[in-house]
């Protein structure tokens, strides 16, 4: 592909050179940020903001997986950053059910967790 690559942390390092961005990022450069997993999206959106502060044009974020949390959807919408993922939580649990890795009771638990992961309790 012969494309440039930079590494962007969500926060500046507290040691060494304390860089948040490693590599050369040109002002006006169009970039796509690659992430493995999206929950709330806050860390990757912090990286987007760091890139924007250096003059980059963030076209969007691509990730392998998203939990599809409402807070994540809202964060990407609020920051006006497009998100594209290879797969998601709904597909994961649907496939797990159809391939009999989980049963209907477990599906109900997993769906309940997704509705409110911060307050979810297995004992309920």
UniProtKB/TrEMBL annotation:
The keyword Glycosyltransferase applies. One of its GO terms (biological process) is 'de novo' UMP biosynthetic process. 5-phospho-alpha-D-ribose 1-diphosphate binds at residues 9, 13, 15, 35-43. Pfam families: Pribosyltran. CDD domains: PRTases_typeI. GO terms for molecular function: magnesium ion binding; orotate phosphoribosyltransferase activity. Orotate binds at residue 39. Transmembrane segments: none annotated. Pathway: Pyrimidine metabolism; UMP biosynthesis via de novo pathway; UMP from orotate: step 1/2. Its cofactor is Mg(2+). Residues 2-65 form the Phosphoribosyltransferase domain. It comes from the Bacteria. The keyword Iron-sulfur does not apply. It catalyses: orotidine 5'-phosphate + diphosphate = orotate + 5-phospho-alpha-D-ribose 1-diphosphate. Its EC number is 2.4.2.10. Belongs to the purine/pyrimidine phosphoribosyltransferase family. PyrE subfamily. Homodimer. This is Orotate phosphoribosyltransferase.
